[in-house]
Design brief:
The complex is a heterodimer of chains A (196) and B (595). Chain A is an alpha/beta fold and 196 residues long. Chain A is 40% helix and 23% strand. In chain A, helix 2 links the parallel strand 4 and strand 5. In chain A, helix 6 crosses helix 8. The longest helix of chain A has 15 residues. Chain A is globular, with a radius of gyration of 16 Å. The two termini of chain A are 27 Å apart. With 595 residues, chain B is an alpha/beta fold. Chain B folds into four domains: 218 residues, Rossmann fold (3-Layer(aba) Sandwich); 110 residues, Rossmann fold; 166 residues, Thiamin diphosphate (ThDP)-binding fold, Pyr/PP domains (Rossmann fold, 3-Layer(aba) Sandwich); 60 residues, Alpha-Beta Plaits (2-Layer Sandwich). In chain B, helix 1 crosses helix 6, helix 10 packs across helix 13 and helix 15 runs parallel beside helix 16. Chain B is globular, with a radius of gyration of 27 Å. The chains are: A alpha/beta (196), B alpha/beta (595). Chains A and B meet through helix 1, strand 2, helix 2, strand 5 and helix 3 of A and strand 8, helix 10, helix 13 and strand 20 of B. Strand 2 of chain A pairs antiparallel with strand 8 of chain B. The complex binds thiamine diphosphate. Chain A: Pfam families: POR.
Chain lengths: 196, 595
C-alpha cells in the first residue's frame, strides 16, 4: 500500500495544528501507521505554519518527501501557492478561499498575487481542486473559528473512512462545550463537497 | 493501545516511567515542551532554572542526593551548561543523570547550527539518539540504567524533527517507590571534590570506561544490524534513519541508537558483509570520521552536504547525483510556485510592548544598538531595522561594553545595550556587574515584558510564578540598584513618549544608565481592549506603518488632497494597545468605543 501524504498549510491562528492532530488521530483510528510533524513560524501569531501528516502501512519519515504530496490542504490562498511544487501531478488540492495579507503586503511593500495568478497556478498543478468557502460556511453556523473543522469535513468526504470515526476523534479533541459546534462544522464541510 | 505523542511528550512520559524525580532546564526551541509536559507528572519535581548552567548544576546535585534527574536545553544551551557537565563526568553521581539537548539542523530557530554530538567525546560521556517518539520514551530508561551502571551522565541528543513530530507510542508504567527517602550522604572527597589532586587519579578510569563502553555499544539492542540487500550497508541514527529507509527499503542498515562510543564490532561486521558502506548523517561527519579512523572506507560527506537537514529528498538527490540510485527514482521537480511571492516573516504581535522601543530607536541617528535574543530581536526586521548586533544571550550587555572599550564613541556614535527580562536573568547580570565595577559609560535597557515570550511564555525569576506554582519575584530595579547602578530610569512600554524620554535621558547622561521598560507581553495579560479605528482625518502619511503592526493595513480609499491611500485597522486583529493612536500626527486613530 502506498503511503498517503498530506501537507497542511496556513497562517498561525487559523487552527491548522488542531486540524493536523485530528487527521493523524483519524488515521490511527482507521488502522494506519501514522506520523505527523508541525513546523511553526517564529511568531506566535501571523507566521506561516506547515503540517505534515502521513498514513500508511509502515510510515518511516514524519516529513512528506519532496514532491510527494497527495493532498494539499491550504487554509489560505498565498500559503497554497507557496507549496505547489510539493504536490504530485495526481494530487488533490483543497484550498480555503481566504486571503490573509502578510505585513509586507498590508504596508504596501509587496503585492498579493492576483486572482488570475492564483487560478492558473492551481490549475496547472493538480487535477482535482476544491475551492472551499470555509470562512463563510463557518460563519453560517455562527463562528468563523471553526473554519479548520469545515475543511476537515470537506477532506473527509474523499476517503472511505466513516464519518463516525472522524466525529468520534473530534469529540475527543475539542472542549466539551464546543463539541456540537464542531460536529456541525464538520458536517457543513462534508455536505458542501456533495455534488462537487 | 498506542498513543500518538510528539517526541517531547514521549520523552516526558519516559522520564515518568523511568522514575525520574527531578527535572530542570532553561527554555529554548525545540526543547521547551519537555519540561512543560513533565509538569503533569506530580511525582517529578520540575523547574525552569535561570540558565542552562544553573539547571545542569541543579540536576547534578539532585543526582548526587540520590534521585534520578534530567536537565533539558536547546542546542546552544550546551555551551552554557558545558562547564557543569564536564565535572560530572569525573565525579559520577549516586543516581542516574541525563543531559538532554535538542539540536536544530536547518537552524529553524537558532543562531548557529552546532552539532552537539561532539560534546560526547569532548566531555567523555556516552550518547544516545532517539529516532522517533517510541524511542524518545524508551531511551530515557536505557539512559538512566546506563548512567547508573557506569556512574556517568548520559548525553541524550534529540533534534527538532524528533521533538516536534508525533508517532504512535506504546506506554508503560512507573514502577517506582516515590516515598523512599534518599540514602544519607557520606562525605567522599576523592569522588566529589574536583581538585586536581583527586581528578588526576580518576583520569585513567575515564579513558578505560570509554573503551569498555564500546563493548556495551556492540551489544546494546538499540544498535542493530538490519540485514538486507548486500550491495549497500547504510549507517544512520536519529530521524535520518527514517528518511533513508524511505529511499532504501531493502538495503542493509546499521541503525544506531547509541552513537558514542560507536559499536566498532558491529561496524566491522557490517563492512565485512556488504560491498560498500555509506554513512548518512546530518551536519558534521561525526560517525564517518570515526569509521574511517577504523580503516574502513565509506561514502559520506563526499556526496552529502555538511549543513542543513538531510531529508528524504536531499538524500535522494545526493544519491542520484553520485550514481547510487537512478534519477527516475527522484520525485519529479515541478516549478509550479509563481515567482516573487511575498514572504510571511514574523512580526511583533499586535499589542506587543516591544513596539514602542523600536519605533523610537529607529529614529535615532549615530546610535549603535547592541541587542539580544528574544521577540525583541524582531526590531532588526522591517519596518524598524533598529539593531546592529545580536549574538548570544547576555551579549547585548557584554558586547555593548566591548564596543565602549574598543573606543567606538570617539567616532561620535553612542552605544545602547538591550536585553529582555529573561535574558537579563539568564546571563545579563554578570556583564552588568562587570560594567559597574569597571566604570562603564553606556546606556543599558531591559525590556521587561514579564515573561520569556519567544520560546512560549515561560516564567523566570522576574515573574510571580514558577513552573509548578507560586514563587518569589525578583525585582529588577532593586537588583540593579543593589549592584551599584545609580542612574536607573523606568518607562511604560505602552506610553511611546515615556520610552522616548527615557532613551534620550539615558543617552545624554554621563556614566552608566539603566532603563527598565515595563509592559506585559500581550499573552501574559491577554488584556484585549476595544479595537481602534481610522477616522476620515487620515491623510495616508504612513507614520502608523512604521510600527509594523499586522492589524494596520493600507486601505483602498485614497485621500483627495495627498493622493495617498489611507490606513485601516483590522478590528479582529487589533487588541486596543493605543500605540498607533499615540503616534498618529493627525489624531486620526480612535477607539471604537469612543467613535
Ligand atoms: C543559551 C540559549 N538558551 C536559550 C535560547 C532560546 N531563547 C531564545 S530567546 C529566549 C528568551 C527570550 O526571553 P526574553 O529575554 O524575556 O525576551 P522576550 O522573548 O520575552 O521578548 C530564549 C530562551 C537561546 N537562544 N540561547
Amino acid at each position: 500500500m502506498e503511503t498517503i501524504n498530506f501537507l497542511i498549510t496556513g497562517v498561525g491562528g487559523q487552527g491548522t495544528v488542531l486540524a493536523s492532530e485530528i487527521m493523524a488521530a483519524v488515521g490511527l483510528a482507521a488502522g494506519y501507521d501514522v506520523k505527523k510533524s508541525d513546523l511553526l513560524g517564529l511568531s506566535v501569531r501571523g507566521g506561516a505554519v506547515l503540517g505534515h501528516v502521513r498514513w500508511g502501512e509502515t510510515v518511516y519519515s514524519p516529513i512528506v518527501p519532496e514532491g510527494r504530496v497527495d493532498y494539499l490542504v491550504a487554509f489560505e490562498q498565498l500559503e497554497a501557492l507557496r507549496h505547489l511544487g510539493q504536490v504530485k501531478s495526481s494530487g488533490t488540492i483543497l484550498v480555503n478561499q481566504q486571503k490573509i495579507y502578510p505585513v509586507l503586503v498590508s504596508s504596501g511593500l509587496a503585492e498579493y498575487p492576483s486572482d488570475e495568478v492564483i487560478e492558473t497556478s492551481l490549475n496547472r498543478t493538480a487535477k482535482a481542486i476544491y475551492k472551499i468557502p470555509a470562512v463563510d460556511l463557518a460563519l453560517g453556523i455562527g463562528n468563523s473559528k471553526v473554519l479548520n473543522i469545515v475543511l476537515l469535513g470537506a477532506l473527509s468526504s474523499l476517503f472511505d473512512i466513516e464519518a463516525a470515526v472522524w466525529e468520534k476523534v473530534l469529540e475527543e479533541r475539542v472542549p466539551k462545550k464546543f463539541t456540537e459546534l464542531n460536529i456541525q462544522a464538520f458536517r457543513e464541510g462534508r455536505n458542501w463537497m456533495k455534488g462537487k | 493501545m498506542k498513543k500518538l505523542m510528539t517526541g517531547n511528550e514521549a520523552l516526558a512520559r519516559g522520564a515518568y516511567e523511568a522514575g525520574v524525580k527531578a527535572a530542570t532546564g532553561y527554555p529554548g526551541t525545540p526543547s521547551s515542551e519537555i519540561l512543560e509536559n513533565i509538569v503533569q507528572y506530580k511525582e517529578i519535581y520540575a523547574e525552569w532554572s535561570t540558565n542552562e548552567k544553573t539547571a545542569t548544576e541543579a540536576a547534578i546535585g539532585a543526582a548526587y542526593a540520590g534521585r534520578r534527574a534530567i536537565t533539558t536545553m536547546k542546542q546552544v544551551g550546551m555551551n552554557v551548561a558545558a562547564d557543569a557537565f564536564f565535572f560530572a563526568v569525573y565525579t559520577g553521581m549516586r543516581a542516574g543523570l541525563m543531559i538532554i539537548v535538542a539540536d536544530d539542523p536547518g537552524m529553524f530557530s537558532s543562531q548557529n547550527e552546532q552539532d552537539n554530538r561532539h560534546y560526547a567525546p569532548f566531555a567523555k560521556m556516552p550518547m544516545l539518539e532517539p529516532a522517533d517518539s517510541q524511542e524518545a520514551k524508551d531511551f530515557v530508561k536505557i539512559a538512566m540504567e546506563m548512567s547508573e551502571e557506569w556512574d556517568v551522565p548520559v548525553l541524550y541528543r534529540t533534534c527538532m524533527r524528533v521533538a516536534h513530530s508525533a508517532s504512535p507510542v506504546e506506554l508503560g508504567e512507573r514502577n517506582w517507590d516515590d516515598e523512599k527517602i534518599p540514602e544519607k550522604w557520606v562525605r567522599n572527597q576523592e569522588k566529589y571534590v574536583c581538585s586536581a589532586m583527586f581528578a588526576q587519579k580518576k583520569r585513567p578510569m575515564i579513558e578505560e570506561r570509554l573503551i569498555k563502553l564500546v563493548e556495551t555499544s556492540n551489544k546494546i539492542a538499540i544498535n542493530r544490524l538490519e540485514w538486507g540487500d548486500r550491495k549497500l550497508g547504510i549507517i544512520a541514527s536519529g530521524p535520518v534513519y527514517h528518511y533513508a529507509r524511505e529511499i532504501f527499503p531493502d538495503a542493509t542498515f546499521l541503525k544506531l541508537g547509541m552513537t558514542y562510543p560507536l559499536p566498532e564490532g558491529l561496524i566491522r561486521e557490517l563492512a565485512a558483509g556488504v560491498e560498500k558502506v555509506m554513512v548518512i548523517e546530518e551536519l558534521d561527519p561525526f560517525i564517518e570520521q570515526q569509521v574511517k579512523a577504523m580503516g574502513i572506507d565509506c561514502i559520506g560527506k563526499d556526496i552529502f552536504p555538511r549543513y542543513g537537514e538531510l531529508l528524504t529528498g536531499d538524500i535522494e538527490k545526493a544519491c542520484a547525483k553520485a550514481g547510487i540510485i537512478p534519477w527516475e527514482k527522484v520525485a519529479e521537480q515541478r516549478a509550479l510556485t509563481p515567482q516573487g511571492l511575498p514572504g510571511r516573516s514574523p512580526v511583533l504581535c499586535p499589542g506587543c510592548p516591544h513596539r514602542s522601543t523600536f519605533f523610537n530607536l529607529a529614529k535615532i541617528k549615530d546610535l549603535i544598538i547592541v541587542s539580544d535574543i528574544g521577540c525583541y530581536n524582531l526590531g532588526a526586521l522591517a519596518p524598524f531595522h533598529a539593531t546592529d548586533f545580536m549574538g548570544s544571550m547576555g551579549a547585548g550587555f557584554g558586547v555593548a561594553h566591548g564596543f565602549e572599550i574598543g573606543g567606538i564613541e570617539k567616532t561620535g556614535q553612542k552605544i545602547i545595550g538591550i536585553v529582555g527580562d529573561s535574558t537579563f536573568f539568564h546571563n545579563g547580570v554578570t556583564p552588568l556587574l562587570n560594567m559597574v565595577h569597571n566604570g562603564s559609560n553606556v546606556t543599558l535597557m531591559v525590556l521587561d515584558n514579564s515573561t520569556t515570550a519567544m520560546t512560549g511564555h515561560q516564567d523566570h525569576p522576574g515573574t510571580e510564578n514558577t513552573l509548578e506554582g507560586k514563587g518569589k519575584r525578583v525585582d529588577i530595579e532593586k537588583l540593579v540598584r543593589a549592584i551599584g547602578v545609580e542612574h536607573v530610569l523606568k518607562a511604560n512600554a505602552f506610553d511611546v513618549k515615556s520610552v522616548d524620554a527615557a532613551i534620550k535621558e539615558g543617552l545624554n547622561h554621563e556614566g552608566l544608565s539603566f532603563i527598565i521598560v515595563e509592559g506585559p507581553c500581550f499573552f501574559v495579560g491577554k488584556n484585549t481592549k476595544p479595537a481602534f479605528t481610522v477616522t476620515q482625518d487620515c491623510n495616508g502619511c504612513g507614520t502608523c506603518f512604521k510600527l509594523g503592526c499586522s492589524a494596520i493595513a493600507r486601505s483602498e480609499i485614497v485621500d483627495e488632497k495627498t493622493g495617498r491611500k489611507k490606513s485601516s485597522i483590522d478590528p479582529v486583529l487589533c487588541v486596543g494597545c493605543t500605540i498607533c493612536a499615540q503616534v498618529c500626527p493627525r489624531k486620526a486613530i480612535v477607539s471604537t468605543q469612543a467613535a
